[in-house]
Amino acid sequence: MPESLPMNGGNGVYSYSKNSKLLKEGLDVMMGMIKDAIIEKMDIKSLSSNNSNIASFHIVDFGCSIGPNTFLGMQHIIKAITHKHQTQHKHNQISPEFQVFFNDHVTNDFNTLFKALPLERRYFASGGPGSFYGHLFPSNSIHFVYSSYSLQWLSKTTKELMDEKSRSWNKGKIHYIGASEDVTSVYIAQFEEDMEMLLNARAKEIVENGMIVMILPGIHSELDHSQVAAGFNVLKFFESSLIDMINEGIFEEGLVDSFNVPLYVASPKDMTKVINKSGYFSIEKMEIIESQPILVEADAKSLIIHLRATLEGIFTKHFGIEIVDEMFARTMNKCEEISSWMKVEYKKSSQLFVVLKRKIN
Q1: Where are the coiled-coil regions (predicted)?
Q2: What is the extent of the structural domain holding 354?
């Protein structure tokens, strides 16, 4: 099973629930596109084995974390599906009952998630703990799959990146940005392996003509892998803080050499390749969406705190809490430098929007 390293739980200063605004702003841009995809591409009648009205409609959010963004997504999705249902079943205006499964790692803070469930909601809520790279639900039981800003997470860090005898040894770095082509190739291969596992698992769980909508950080196919938005490029400042600590003798350099952040920003070319290889889904829509930069000079601090809420568990498991506290403190002290860098280098935020439909066997 993949390592279980979820976002920071609870409601503390560095919790994901208090520091997910940046993703919400990106998600707000996509809600209209999700609605259009459901209206244009979903055929409610075809989702039933006897082409009749569906009594219970099952939705999964893969990588739900602890809210509140997942609830916003469910609200818009259910509203769009209800509209589509009423359009196709004018003789029967009674909408199906909705069952939503909130999925994340088994160590995700589901207590905080379910405590925050909206009182006014149009669905029954259940937890679906486990890695989305494996099987989680019965065959032919899911009608709609949604995943927002989760599939950029790889299931593991490939061993070659930490093997000093390998050409892909990522010495002195913690990510593929700014690394060699050999390192980048390893990340790409791991992404392809993971996505194939995910699609094969979903192929068994999703009914024929069922849909998948995926939103994840993206990059244009023709761009170099280093040209991702600042939210990922800022990892180099964490890296430099760690290197400073090594130079000061706080810990040995081997601790950095044996660590790589398991994040990959995919292009449409990357995604198309693995979907076609799987063969179970048709691509109904795929495009890179660019939004205006969310971050401005004064928001370097907000970005670092957001990344702490997202990445602290991964760093802590490897380095220990004392080193990680020091790393984030040192990086926070670089806010002025980071702000100046962002002002020059920051690009529009790019999301990869993908709509898939389960093929008929």
Answers
A1: none
A2: 21-358
Q: How many CB atoms lie within 10 A of CB 36?
A: 13
Tokens 């974390």 -> residue:
65
Model's pTM, two decimal places? 0.91
Domain annotation covers residue 229 = yes
pLDDT digit string (tens) for 191-222? 999 999 999 999 999 999 999 999 998 898 88
Angle at 9 between CA 8 and CA 11, to 5 degrees: 110
Give CA–CA dist 322/317, Å, rounded. 11
Is 13 domain-assigned?
no
Query: pLDDT digits over 243-253, tens only?
Result: 999 999 999 99
Q: Would 7 be classed as within a structural domain? A: no
Q: Are 225 and 184 in contact (CB under 8 A)?
A: yes
Cα–Cα distance for residue pair 175/184, rounded to 1 Å: 9
Cβ atoms of 148 and 7 closer than 8 Å? no
Sorted by sequence, the CB contacts under 8 Å of residue 91 that are 6+ apart come out as: none
**In the numeric block, which tokens belong to residue 13?**
């200063």
Instruction: Specify if 60 maps to a domain.
Output: yes
